[in-house]
Design a protein that fits this description.
Elements: E1 6-7, E2 19-20, H1 22-35, H2 39-51, H3 58-70, H4 74-82, H5 89-101, H6 105-117, H7 124-137, H8 140-153, H9 159-171, H10 175-184, H11 190-203, H12 206-218, H13 225-231, H14 239-254, H15 261-277, H16 281-290, H17 296-309, H18 312-324, H19 332-338, H20 348-360, H21 367-379, H22 383-390, H23 399-411, H24 415-427, H25 434-447, H26 450-463, H27 470-482, H28 486-494, H29 502-515, H30 518-531, H31 536-548, H32 552-564, E3 573-578, E4 581-586, H33 595-621
Antiparallel strand pairs: 1-2, 3-4
Helix pairs in contact: 1-2, 1-3, 2-3, 3-4, 3-5, 4-5, 5-6, 5-7, 7-8, 7-9, 8-9, 9-10, 9-11, 10-11, 11-12, 11-13, 13-15, 14-15, 15-16, 15-17, 16-17, 17-18, 17-19, 19-21, 20-21, 21-22, 21-23, 22-23, 23-24, 23-25, 24-25, 25-26, 25-27, 26-27, 27-28, 27-29, 28-29, 29-30, 30-31, 31-32
């Protein structure tokens, strides 16, 4: 059947005519359907294709397969594919890619096997797509199969395919194979180097990462924005690593890598994160303020920096500014990031407002947000609100949800409720992890449930294979110590399978103070000083212990040690939050603008209190 091109008939409204190509029109219509994810328009296009007799047109079929896949109807795509008499590699690629995008990875590999059995050879796009899937699934066996097919078909020499295979091996932890592929590539681009650098960086092979960067520069390949963003997460910690981060920041500015809008946001977020984790949140804020384009990810990175730095007020102010100044709407990640800033009694109102926002935006059923809400409400003292979030039937609970609620009960001294919830969690088939174990053991410790706590400890080690971490061991020491079983706590420390850390000895110190065991207190402090020689609090505390026993020579010795190490204890601080502003006060502090009024009020209170004491004595004597 031959279809002629249509021509519009001239009328009095227009005099020019143009030819109308139905295939081109249908291609454009299918493209429009895919962009708007419209299943209705896709079906109408399909119907029109069949009506006009274009069912065997490979161009239209490719677009139709993609449109159905975008509309989450991959099996409709398969029906279109199966109806075709002649199938080329582009049709196979469209179908395989559609199944991949819909998360049907087994079906995608099954299609690949069918392709290999047919008379059509896979191309670079087929091989790179399935290599990527193998990497995401962390399954090296199908990835090796793709690698073998790439070698037999000669596509392994294609840089894009080789990069995909290397990425797959890196994500599967097989760096030796990734390095072999890298060494065999004839033409390497920046992406080839980036794949291996990212693989090493993500897996924690820091030294190998920096050595590879040096080789990259020796090979005269210039690091790009992606290279720098992979390296910045390695630049937190000690001074040397922080200096690396500053050098990378200079490289970004010098090579103008931040000029692209996308690069500006991505690199800006990485820099903010690096500076925040290096306790340089002020520098991170300078980067944030100078960014040309700030999306929700940039705002979230800065908010998260303030939260990690303990500046809750600034985090909440920034969260408000994000919506009011830049008009950027918060997403799931930004809500999760800001909620820890509300984790105090004074932050309860802000936490409730964020909860309300999540309900309005229909994010309140997101399990990660609910977990953050449970944690926030528990720490704010509103256990009933935390319980309401937890008991919502629409919430699909995961292990973190149960752990958050168990920890909430423990925080409020409700050990029995925590144990009951823990047992209920086990009944649902969810296995405990380290966080759950720490939560329920802490609850037992605060409630004096030693027997129950030791039984749970024994159960998680024997039945669930939980490793004895420092956090778990510290909970046991704290539990035994609070109950006055200090000798048993010390014996437990000696028998620990891991080296006792500051948290373990700190728990013993606290228990020794509660029960007035000066000898045990001194022993614990001596180990703390060995483990934390730069922590002035340990020296001050043991000095006070010696002073209470009138051991002045020992006090003088500790003071000399502090002086030699140039240690100075930071003064204690208390605070109060009024009208969304936190006011901090130190010992004998007169820096507050209302300091004179505060001290006048304090004098009046002291006078009132002393008068009350005198009056009570007079009443008693009469």
């Amino acid at each position: 059947m031959i279809h002629k091109k249509f021509a519009l008939v001239p009328s009095r409204y227009y005099s020019s005519a143009f030819e109308f190509d139905p295939v081109l029109a249908l291609l454009q219509f299918l493209h429009f359907s895919a962009i708007h994810t419209s299943l209705k328009l896709t079906r109408q296009s399909h119907s029109r294709i069949l009506t006009l007799g274009f069912s065997q047109n490979s161009f239209l079929a490719t677009k139709l397969i993609l449109a159905y896949a975008v509309c989450q109807r991959p099996f409709h795509s398969r029906l279109v594919f199966d109806s075709l008499q002649h199938k080329n590699v582009y049709l196979w690629n469209s179908l395989i890619n559609g199944f991949v995008k819909n998360g049907l990875y087994s079906e995608a590999f099954h299609l690949f096997n069918q392709l290999c059995s047919s008379d059509v050879l896979p191309d670079g796009f087929t091989l790179s797509t399935l290599s990527k899937v193998s990497g995401e699934l962390r399954t090296v066996f199908p990835g090796k199969s793709i690698h073998g097919k790439s070698i037999r078909t000669g596509f392994v020499s294609d840089t894009v395919v080789a990069n995909s295979i290397m990425s797959m091996y890196c994500k599967c932890g097989n760096f030796g194979e990734a390095r072999k592929v890298f060494d065999e590539i004839t033409v390497r681009n920046a992406g080839s180097w980036n794949v291996v650098i990212t693989g090493y960086a993500v897996s924690g092979h820091r030294e190998e990462t920096w050595e590879f960067v040096k080789q990259m520069q020796m090979d005269e390949v210039k690091p790009d924005a992606y290279t720098i963003s992979s390296l910045l997460p390695l630049c937190d910690g000690d001074v040397r690593k922080y200096d690396y981060g500053r050098e990378l920041h200079c490289y970004i500015v010098k090579n103008e890598l931040e000029l692209g809008i996308d690069s500006d946001v991505h690199l800006g977020c990485c820099l903010i994160d690096m500076y925040s984790r290096s306790n340089k949140v002020v520098v991170g804020r300078r980067v944030f303020d100078r960014m040309k384009c700030r999306n929700v990810f940039a705002w979230t990175a800065m908010i998260n920096g303030y939260v990690e730095h303990g500046d809750s007020d600034e985090a909440l102010n920034l969260f408000r500014d994000m919506q009011t100044i830049d008009g950027v709407e918060a997403n799931r990640v930004s809500l999760i990031s800001v909620l820890p800033a509300c984790s105090s009694f004074s932050g309860l109102l802000a936490g409730r407002q964020i909860h309300g926002f999540s309900i309005r935006k229909e994010l309140n059923n997101e399990v990660s947000i609910c977990n953050a809400l449970i944690d926030m409400y528990s720490k704010c003292g509103s256990l009933n609100s935390a319980r309401l979030v937890f008991e919502d039937d629409s919430l699909s609970k995961d292990a973190i949800t149960w752990s958050s609620m168990i920890s909430g009960y423990g925080l409020h001294g409700k050990g029995q409720e925590a144990i009951l919830l823990y047992e209920k969690m086990l009944q649902t088939g969810i296995k405990p992890d380290t966080i759950t174990t720490v939560g329920v053991l802490s609850a037992c410790s605060r409630s004096g449930l030693v027997k129950e706590g030791l039984n749970i400890y024994s159960s998680v080690i024997k039945n669930y294979g939980i490793e004895q971490t420092l956090e778990i061991c510290a909970c046991i020491v704290d539990m035994l110590g609070r109950a006055g079983l200090l000798d048993q706590a010390l014996e437990f420390i000696k028998a620990m399978p891991v080296e006792p850390g500051p948290s373990v000895w700190g728990a013993l110190v606290s228990s020794s103070i509660i029960h007035g065991d000066l000898e045990m207190q001194e022993l614990a402090y001596s180990f703390l000083i060995q483990l934390e020689p730069e922590n002035p609090s340990n020296y001050v505390s043991i000095s006070n212990l010696y002073a209470s026993s009138r051991r002045w020579d020992a006090v003088a010795e500790v003071r000399i040690m502090m002086k030699d190490k140039r240690l100075k204890k930071l003064p204690g601080c208390s605070w109060i939050s009024i009208n969304n502003k936190t006011h901090c006060f130190y010992v004998a502090d007169k820096a507050h603008p209302s300091s004179s009024l505060i001290y006048n009020m304090l004098d009046d209170l002291l006078l009132t209190m002393s008068d009350a004491v005198v009056s009570s004595h007079l009443e008693t004597s009469t």
